[in-house]
Amino acid sequence: MSSATLTPQKSVASTLSPHAVSRLRQARLARSTRPFLARGGPKGERCEGCRLRPSHCMCALRPELATRAAFCLLMHDAEPLKPSNTGWLIADVVQDTHAFGWSRTELDPQLEALLADPQWQPYVVFPGEYAEPAERVLETLDGGDSRALQPGRRPLFILLDATWSEARKMFRKSPYLDGFPVLSLHPDLISRYQLRRSKRDDHFCTSEVAALCLELVGDAGDVQAGQVLESYLGVFTERYLQAKHQQPVDEASSAHQRLRELMGAVPAKRDA
Ligand SMILES: [Zn+2]
Question: Is the pTM of this model over 0.85?
């Protein structure tokens, strides 16, 4: 473990370079013919860096960690515009996060190049019951065959960032994903996770699925990044709701404490 970073290196949104989801959001905004009004109405001013109200901005907490795993988010049309989208949080935490708008008919050349790059081992993360043939489905990355994560390669987790019904359609209608194994999160992993989260329902948001993927990689840094992502979501959710209910930020809350503890234990950023 190298030197701990208790204090964030950057503290204002304007000094953060926009990540993949942020760039996708800008591109999507530029394409729309009418302004997208996030819930909260036209007066709901939001920070460009974290999408929270400026009074609840958490840009100073953005972790940006180097991990073995990378993420490729395929985002349904309006997803990058939603202030509650949690794919954004993955890009905040995991340095190697790529994001593309999903299209049924077109394959973005950059996405095609990413999927073909031999440094990556792509996995489509999706419930196995929807995959055909069933042999495509894996529940871990350490199975004995060629689909297992190879030493020297890095896993690229492809996440469909959409509502559940949109995601099913995207899964069925993306022929360029058909050749990749489907990583289906094992029920044991899911129930272990459910025990430690405060919300008691079966719906996992995209960043929760990403945290579980990082846990599966098994490398210490990735497991830790998964924990950071999980607690970062906790802080985001807390601040999002506080802003909505016009309550002040509680820096001493257990969610903030947990994130600070975890950030104190991770090695410093690669470029720090
Ligand atoms: Zn912010």
Answer: yes
